[in-house]
Amino acid sequence: MTLEPFPTDWQRALAVVAHPDDMEYGASGAVAAWTQAGKEVAYLLVTRGEAGIDSLSPAECGPAREQEQRRACAAVGVEQCEFLDHPDGVIEYGLPLRRDIAAAIRRHRPDLVITGNFADRWATGGLNMADHVHTGRATLDAVRDAGNRWVFPGAGGEPWNGVRWLAVSGSPQATHGVDIGEVFDRAVASLSAHELYLRGLGGGGMADPEAFLRPHAEQAAQQLPGATLATTFELHDLGA
Fold this sequence. Notes:
This protein is α/β, with parallel strands linked by helices. 36% of the residues lie in helices and 17% in strands. The protein has helices spanning 28-36, 58-75, 95-108, 130-146, 184-192, 195-200, 209-221, and strands at 4-5, 12-17, 40-45, 80-83, 112-116, 165-169, 176-179, 230-237. Helix 2 (58-75) packs antiparallel against helix 5. This is PIG-L family deacetylase.
C-alpha cells in the first residue's frame, strides 16, 4: 500500500487524546514537522494520566505527568496544552465528554482535528483500550457538535464548522503519511520528556523512545514515496 502525502492546506490544528504520551508514540513527529513549517497546533488532553504509573498515587502522578506533557509539547513547538480532568482509566463516552471537546473546538477553531486510534485493535493486532476508543469516538462526534449552535449551547463559544480534516493517528487503516526525517530527533525528545512514565514501564520496547519510534518510522516511510522516516494517519476530508 502506498500512502498519500498529508495535505498542507490548513493552518490550525487541535489534537485531542486521552493521556499524556498518547501523541508522543508516533504523532508528535508530524507535529514537529508542522510547527516547523509555521502551522499552529494545540493539544487537548482528556485526563492527566494520573492512573498511569503503578508506583505513584494519582495525587502525585497527575501533576507530574502534566509537567512531562508540557515538556513534550515544547519539544515539538506546541505552546497550548489543556487538560479536561476526566478520570484516567475510566473515561466514559457520553454527552459530558462530547460537550467538553466541542467547547475546545469552538475555542481553538481548527482546520484540522487529530485524535488517536479508536478502533478495537492496533495495526499490530493488539487490543486497544477503552480510554482511547471513547476519546476518539467522542472527538469524531464533537467535530459535528461544535458546528451546531443548538447542541451544547451553554458550552461557550460561537459554532465552528471550519474543521476540514479529521486525522486518526496509529490507525490500522492508515491512508496518509508525514515525512518526519528532518525532525525525528524532536519526536524522540518529546517521548523522552515522559521520564517518570517511561521509568514506570520497567523496561521493554515502549520504554526506549529511540528504539520504539525508529522501526515504526522506517516501516511507514517504505509506504511514503521519498521519505526515510514517516508517521501515518487515517485521514478524512470532511469537506468532500
